Every structure is written in C-alpha cells, then in structure tokens.
Amino acid sequence: MTDQDFMSNIVHQQVFPLVNSIGLNEQELLFLTQAASGPHASLASWSGIPDVGVVSDILFWLLKEHGKAAGRDSDLTRIHFHTLAFHILATVDGHWGNQAAAVAAGARAAGTQACATDTIDTSRVLLKAPREFLTSHTEAPAKISLDPDEPVVQWRRGGVSFHFTPVLVCQDPVRTVGLGDAISAEGLLYSEVYPH
Q1: pLDDT at 18
Q2: Residue 49 maps to which CATH number?
Q3: pLDDT tens digits for 66-97?
Q4: Which residues are catalytic?
Q5: Which residues of the chain are modeled with pLDDT < 70?
Q6: 41, 45, 88, 165: which has the fewest Cβ within 10 Å?
Q7: Pairing state between β 21-24 and 78-82
Q8: Are 80 and 188 spatial neighbours (Cβ–Cβ below 8 Å)?
C-alpha cells in the first residue's frame, strides 16, 4: 500500500475499471489520494480519528475523477469507507439504493463482530465519532450535528450522495481478523443496485 506506482495502477488499471463497489479504511484512502495526487494528498497521516470533511473530499474526488463516467474506463459507483469511529457510504446518484440501511448494517457488523456478540451490547461499546463535523474542506461545507435518534446523516454534493453513521466501538475486542471485509460485505448485502 505504500508503493505509489502500485496504488496508481489500482486506480487506473487493476481495480477501479473492473468493479462497481469498493470498501476501504483510512490508511487505504490516504494512500490512494497520495498516490494519485488527490485532495489532501499532503496529509502525511491521520491524527486520531479521521476528519469527516477530509474523508468526504477524497471520496468525492475518487468517484468524480476515477469513477464511472462517459468516456472513462471505470464502473466504480460506490465506496464504503470505514474507520473505527464512523462509516461513510458514498454513491454516484442513480446507481444504488437503500444506502442508509447499508451503512448502518456495516456499522452494526463492526460492533457485533469485534465484541463477538449477536447484537450490540451497550455495556461493551462506546461512541468515539465526532458529535459535530463539516462535510467538506474544499467546497462550501455544511455543519452537521449528530442526532442520537437518527444516527444516519445524509448529504449530497455534485451527483454524489453521502451517508454517514457513527460506530459503537467495542471496548474489549475479541474478533478483529477480517473485520473490514465483514463490514464491507454486510453493507453491500443491504445495498440495492439499480440495473443499467
């Protein structure tokens, strides 16, 4: 992941032209923007919990510059970003449905698999997501405050929809091997693809 030529090949030749959807974490997202000279590429590493606005800017850029478009050899229309504290599902409008349920399912999978429980055990989890955040740092942002009664937040930007949800983080994780794959698979299971 630290080889910029390898990451550039992923974007331009090896992966993005062949898939509709990807799931990735904060390290992978940062390596992609650094390798392809995207927004916030000068950021050397995350300082604690990734900034939602920065993540949103990079996801938007990936879909607009390297996703599905007329005359471009790419089918990518969906990215499920996951980090310890929150998830964001970014989709090109008109290709996917049920995103709120999909991002919530991925977040639930993170809490249940890490704690090795069938349901979220509130005595074993905590909330680390930011209570307020900006949706961008490169364009006019919206400031969003989380509402515990409606934990999935949505915003749109230039033909891309974003769905954000906090994660209830397991305090004493038991199972973390394959957690990213489980999160992405669970979110994809709840997604609806629109045939084109």
Answers
A1: 87
A2: 3.40.1190.20
A3: 888 888 878 899 999 999 999 999 999 999 99
A4: 181
A5: 1
A6: 45
A7: parallel
A8: yes
Compute the distance between CA of residue 177 and CA of residue 75 in angstroms, rounded to an integer: 29
Name the domain count of the chain.
Answer: 1
Q: What pLDDT score does 50 carry?
A: 98
The predicted structure's pLDDT at residue 74: 83
- pLDDT computed for residue 178 by the predictor: 87
Coil vs helix vs strand at 33: helix
| Residue linked to tokens 């510059």 | 65
Answer whether 59's CB lies under 8 Å from 23's CB. no
What is the Cα–Cα distance from 80 to 50, expressed in whole angstroms? 15
The whole-angstrom separation of Cα 56 and Cα 160 is 10
Q: Please give the residue range of the domain that contains residue 71.
A: 4-193
- Quote the pTM value: 0.94
Neighbour-count burial of 148, counting CB atoms closer than 10 A to its CB (0-12 exposed, 13-18 middle, 19+ buried): exposed
Residues 56 and 122: their CA atoms lie apart, in Å, by: 29
